[in-house]
Amino acid sequence: MSASSRPDAARRTSTMNKRTSILPKHTALFIDPSALVAQHAGFTGTQPITVGPNAVLHPHAKVSSALAPVVIGENVVLWERAKIGVGMGDSMDESKRNSVASMASRTSVRDSSRGEGTVLGRNVTVEATAVVEAAEVGEGSVIEVGAYVGKGCVIGKFCTIVAHCVLPANTHIPDYMVVHSATEYRQNRTLLLRPEVLEMRTNFHTTQISTFKKLVPNQVAKWAS
């Protein structure tokens, strides 16, 4: 390539400036200053998104308010490629969408009494590649790797939705349950009857967040500006 075929320096600088200026900015995003938002985590949509104190979004975690508001509570952790918000299930692969449809057709669920939107309570963990469209996930609950929690679901406190579990829309799960499907779950009596174990689990979660803040670069200023 000849030197004359390359754009001059002024033109290259202009192009770079233009790319920087069109980075998307969410217009209804409220992030607590103590939150950790890693590089490549993202927010989309036009309805409100609230991120509470000490919440952690790992790289490529996505939160969408395109269809309804989202509230991420205090100390919530979203792992890599977790997806939160109504409509995020549309991005699942065809086999998992078929599984959701099949489960819904075979399962009797109650209509949700919650309004539109998604609320993750205090100390909730959503692990890698999990998708949560739920109306509410209660305090201390864990959504494990690759699980799907459908629109309008209400998950109680200190539940575990096991890896790759599929919960169709409007499923209601009581507190302290280990959930394998909308019809298969058992009570976690260890957490229910031994408060010292529950305290240890909560302390471990808090320690994890402190460690993340030391190791993961925080890009929260990109979204706060």
Automatic annotation (TrEMBL):
Residue segments, region Disordered: 90-116
Record's GO cellular component terms: dynactin complex
**Where in the cell?**
Cytoplasm, Cytoskeleton
Enumerate the UniProt keywords alphabetically: Cytoplasm, Cytoskeleton
Q: Where is the composition biased (Polar residues)?
A: 98-107
Q: Which domain of life is it from?
A: Eukaryota
What range does the record give for the signal peptide? none
- Which InterPro entries does the entry link to? DCTN6, Trimer_LpxA-like_sf
Q: Which GO terms of type biological process are on file?
A: mitotic spindle organization
Predominant location:
cytoplasm
Which one of the record's GO molecular function terms can you name?
dynein complex binding
Quote the function comment for this protein: Part of the dynactin complex that activates the molecular motor dynein for ultra-processive transport along microtubules.
What's this protein's family per the entry? Belongs to the dynactin subunits 5/6 family. Dynactin subunit 6 subfamily.
- What this protein is called in its record is Dynactin subunit 6
Protein species of origin = Paraphaeosphaeria sporulosa
